[in-house]
Amino acid sequence: MKRKDYITWDEYFMGIAILSAKRSKDPSTQVGACIVNPSNKIVGIGYNGFPIGCSDDELPWERTNDEVNLTKYPYVVHAEANAILNSTKDLHGSRIYVDLFPCNECAKLIIQSGIVEVVYLSDKYKDTDSVKASRRMFRLAGVRERQLIVKNKKVILNYE
């Protein structure tokens, strides 16, 4: 008899996105993304961080300006963009799993790359202009979006 407590495909791919977010060095927001083709094969993974070759120790991680430092925002590459840039195959018809609903800049990349569905966990910025613009573009481009409601709230990785 097979196990009954296995995770769904959606939970599996969102789990990969969440695990990828653990690579982010951002002290306030860690976001991961996992792109999956129509055959349920992973074709791209990413997390938010600075561009390759830009030192994590020399650029600011602050969220607000002070007299000396800028914020992290002009420098950080979002998880969705990294997943698209790291992709190994054509993305047309794929879906992207992200733990945070995409901003307008990532929405443009998602649409242009041919991704047809966005599956997300959190929509905590839904009232911002950026997310409102994302939703409008997704609607116009025919990109589906859905919030994932998971049955397994916790999955434990054990390296022993």
Topology of this protein?
Elements: H1 9-21, E1 32-36, E2 42-47, H2 79-85, E3 95-100, H3 104-113, E4 117-122, H4 129-141, E5 144-147
Parallel strand pairs: 3-4, 4-5
Antiparallel strand pairs: 1-2, 1-3
Entry summary:
This protein is of the alpha/beta class and 160 residues long. A five-stranded mixed β-sheet has the order 2-1-3-4-5, sandwiched between helices. The protein is globular.
Write structural notes for this entry:
By secondary structure, this protein is α/β, with parallel strands linked by helices. It has four helices and five strands. Helix 3 (104-113) packs parallel to helix 4. It is globular and about 65 Å long.
Strand order, biggest sheet?
2-1-3-4-5
What order do the helices and strands follow?
HEEHEHEHE
**Whole-number mean pLDDT:** 93
Overall strand count: 5
Please state the oligomeric state of the protein chains shown: single chain
Helix content: 25-40%
Note the overall shape: globular
Radius of gyration: 16 Å
Poorly predicted segments:
none
User: Which structural class fits the helix and strand makeup?
Assistant: alpha/beta
The separation of the N and C termini measures 26 Å
